[in-house]
Write a structure and sequence with these properties.
The protein has three domains: 1-58 and 279-408, no CATH class; 67-254, no CATH class; 468-672, no CATH class. The longest helix is centred in the middle third of the chain and has 41 residues, at 410-450. It is 50% helix and 16% strand. The protein starts with a helix and ends with a helix. The protein has 24 helices and 21 strands.
Amino acid sequence: MDAIWNDLRFAVRSLRTSRTFSLVAMLTLAVGIGANTAVFSVVNAILLKPLPYADPDRLVFLTQTAPEGSSPVTSPTKYQFCKERATTVEDLAAFHLGFTNLTDADRPEQVGVAYASAGFFRLFGARFVLGRGFSAADDRPHGDNVAVMSEALWRRRFGADPALLGKTIRLNGHPTTVVGILGGEFDGTAVGGPFAAVDVYLPLQLDMAENANGNFLTAAGRLAPHARVEGARAELQRLGDEFRGMHPSFLRVQDGFGVERAKDVLVGDVRPILLLFTAAVGLVLLIACANVASLLMARATSRAREMAIRMALGADRSRILRQLLTESMLLASIAGSIGVVGGVAAVRAILAIRVAQLPRVGADAANLTVDVRVLLFTVIVSLATGIAFGLLPGWRASRQDGAHALGNDRVGSIAASGGARGILMSAQIAVAVVLLVGALLLIRSLVALRGVAPGFGVQGVLTARMSLSEPRFATTAAVNALIDNALDRVRAVPGVAAAGAACCLPLQDAPMLRVNIVGRRLDGAYHVMAGWRMVSPGYFDVFAIPVVRGRRLTNRDDRGGAPVVLINDAMAHRFWPGSNPLHEHLEIGKGLGPEFADAPREIVGVVADVHDVGLSQPPIPTVYVPLAQLPDPLTALHFHMLPIAWVVRTNTTPIAVASALEQQLQQASGGVPVTHVAPMNAVLARSTAQSDFNTALMTGFAVAAVLLAGTGIFGVVAYSVQQRRHEIAVRVACGAGSGDVRRLIVWGSMRYVLAGALIGLAAAFGATRVLASLLFGVTVHDAASFVAAPVLMTAVALLAVWGPTRQALRVDPAVMLRGD
């Protein structure tokens, strides 16, 4: 113990005497360790932390499988079928999300709501601060109006008043009794998925007599004792075949039932991206280690006599190695302490600013915390880093020839370490080139994505939302009356050029429904699953979506007129290539249940394609139905779950009319809260937020790698020049010119740089394949990226070498040799 303490004290003294070296080395390592800590804190929050629910590893979601992929959605009919027959999954509970208006006081507010079955809270092991969850009686069709409230809403809106339990609040105009207050840990944002932004829970109250087959439910359960996911999947697949036999129109031949672990569903497809970033940030740390190792080997040259004297006084090689490793570990420990604070703070700031849509990180990245797992990771990384960059320099220093060192054999000591430093330099360049190629590919992909014409006008468009889940809006006539009144008011606002309403905005909330073409042969349950948009006549004017053929919707397309529909170009080209689809008829939602029952609709127009699903996805077949012609049950079902979207085109800055828009909509609706008032530019920006985040993070890693590699080269070459001043003086005294000295320094370093760049290009050629799923409009072997990366890295390296080279040219041989 005393020996270790003595080594530590000497390490502190040694680093204190070399303050410039110590500061550079610590900051270099802090960047690498901090970046790794930051990424690990995200991986920890999303992938490693258990879900905050009872027995989370056995929690599963039912899925519907299809060739296009599986999705954690189901219908009331399918849910009830599985609940009655499944043996490998127990305690099945169902829920769906929506919005409700809290109007119990003078401050109306729209809040997120989850309609949940009676077993929901028991399944997830929810803790109640006050009261209880839903009983079977609460959950029966047309049961009592009761609610469970989140602790956050209880504290924010009601001051955590315990007397609220058992009292009545007004939700959607209904007097509703509060029967429970959930604990804060069940806040709806912990998983960032199905329960996000939920403040109120209401009973699901499914009426199974309606035989509804619309996929608007999510169903979760727990694996039965001794059951495994594989066995549950096999059973659900069998149940899917059985269900199809009983209801052939409800499930296609190629579709089926499945089950997935809750964490896999909630994490979604973000796992590969996180693993990619983990590998990338590990490469940054590798560069930092190589950087500091090079500096240590250069520093070891100046300490050669010190080590030789130690050995002459009786220290063996293991003692020297232990002392040098102690110094390395101390450097890494200090750097780790800096990195753990800076890294987590940096990633929280990035996530809060970039709105990356990552699950489980919480609002403003609040769930990214420095817990025991993150601290342990940082400690392990710091210790491993200290060993990694300290072992080779320490081993070389402990193996040096003491006689040569005491004889001040400068050239020999320099030559002995030069080869190893060159290899480390090449390694840094190679890794930096790999990261730089990846960053350039993502940057070019993002540029291509932002260059996609969305198919609709964005400039000058203002959007807003409003929940119409109140009973007074349960009929199409009531909703249409509201739309007519509201749009008349809004159009009268100065600066408004056009106004409309829709079920949803482009690039957001893309509901899909099955569509059949009347009179055409049907091989499966439907002809196509198409995007389904319910719009008012002014919708196409606001977004400047042109009509390719036929006509637009008009105010005459109401309940008194013939049922009509518009389709987009993608659907026209798919089903009527080279022919005219006008006057054909479509059946929308047929076979999904009574709430979707609708008369065949005549195609009266074809509109241009819009990128509704996403800018990176081609336009899908889409149908546009007049809001005024919806069946009442469909109107009630849709606005029970999703708010209506108001859209306005302005002749001025959109935000300038925001206040007037909100005021007119509230007056027209009788005080319904208006939310999410934002320019369409912001909606468009959110649609590329994940690509923005991916590109920003990878670019940050690449920039860090380039800077670390560049500063490392500068430091090593500068240190080398300092150690070789005597050699340079001798060369100049013997007739070497400035060009000879320049070639000696520049070529001696750049040959390692060029070798590293070539190795990096070869490595990047294979490594970039993992980016394929993140790219758009560019291939993984994009020539521009593969040319620009090594050229940029070589230019940075040349700039880093040039400074020490100029220093070498200033060596005065007369002064240097006189010193000998």
